[in-house]
Amino acid sequence: MPQATARYRHLFALPGARAFTAGNLLARLPMxxxxxxxxxxxxxxxxxxxxxxAVVATGLAATALVAPWTARLIDRHGQARIALPATxxxxxxxxxxxxxxRQGAPDWTLFAAYAATATTPNIGGMARARWAHLxxxxxxxxxxANSFExxxxxxxxxxxxxxxxxxxxxxxxxxxxxxxxxxLVTGMALFTAQRSTEPPLQPSATPTPPxxxxxxxxxxxxxxxxxxxxxxxxxxxxxxxxxxxGHGTAAGAVLALxxxxxxxxxxxxxxxxxxxxxxxxxxWCLAAMAALLTLPLLAASLTGSLVxxxxxxxVSGMATAPTMITNMTLVQERTPEGRxxxxxxxxxxxxxxxxxxxxxxxxxxxxxxxxxAGYGVPVAAAVTALLIAVTARAYALSRRxxxxxxxxxPRTG
Length: 413
Fold this sequence. Notes:
Layout: H1 2-12, H2 17-28, H3 34-46, H4 49-77, H5 79-103, H6 107-116, H7 123-134, H8 139-170, H9 175-193, H10 217-244, H11 251-271, H12 278-292, H13 294-302, H14 306-316, H15 320-334, H16 340-368, H17 371-374, H18 376-400
Helix pairs in contact: 1-8, 2-9, 3-4, 3-5, 3-8, 3-9, 4-5, 4-6, 4-16, 5-6, 5-9, 7-8, 8-9, 8-11, 8-15, 10-11, 10-16, 10-18, 11-14, 11-15, 12-15, 12-18, 13-14
Keywords: Membrane, Transmembrane, Transmembrane helix
Transmembrane segments: 25-43, 49-70, 82-105, 162-185, 219-242, 248-272, 284-302, 308-331, 343-366, 372-392
Protein name: Transport protein
């Protein structure tokens, strides 16, 4: 174990690493707060969950469109020049949302204000780009850094909703959004101030292709879409299941266990020295994810116990972080040079799109069939992700296979 912790100590011994990580974590925590805060604020001031859900869905759609564009500007002009101004625009959108909700402005203003928050840069992608710059030529250390970043994602999405619900519920409906805006601006200012660790611009003499056209990237992005469907459906179905059991207030804690399992697995995965290629590990991680996601389905259908379901979610979450870590490693390897932020942001955009699809599919199944049957949706999504990865690998191998020489013609080379 001392050798394992030494891997993380090595990371943060690098000059500037602790400072940009502190800003990174401060700016990342609101990512798990904004949706819950917006729902609670709008539902509390307008007495309409339908309106709140529609506003948040519009914000996700806007993010899917705007985030890759913001990332492209960051790759071209640098993190400091673009990320902080883009964050300030997003912060103004958050403050406008608070003002419109508080003052009873027309409903369309809520949509417009929340859509403005889509300019928020992908702080996780920028942090991974810094690690890739600092650890160039050291794949083992980069694996540990990617594992830490994924664990940070899980921690923020585990603590963010809890903090948002606490602030909105105990103080006032706008408290979660206001706190999130403050943390986002402060964290991004601290992060972008660390110029010594910022990746240098890499001007190219010849235009590079968009990341989504790079070899192997379409399949990775399709897997991200399927994995997002896992996360979106699992959240909605668990909320519905807990409500059916009469323990709706416990749903947040149950979902936090799933994120907690992923957080612990991510840190452990980063402390281990990876064996074999990331390509090979990827398929095994996806297979493990699909297999472990059957546990919540079995717990819900065979026992109906929320306690056993919580334990099943904890165990099933342990495959999430290793899968996402390996996915991001492959995204980094396959993204054209100089467009790393854009490539990783496209992966996140795929996840967001999948979350929206999974939420819709899980909600429909829970309402029209049962919440228990809804746990089949994340299993199906995980199996789909595995099939995409396996099929893409088989196709790539077939393209590399040498073409048989015609009869009577000797093979050269």
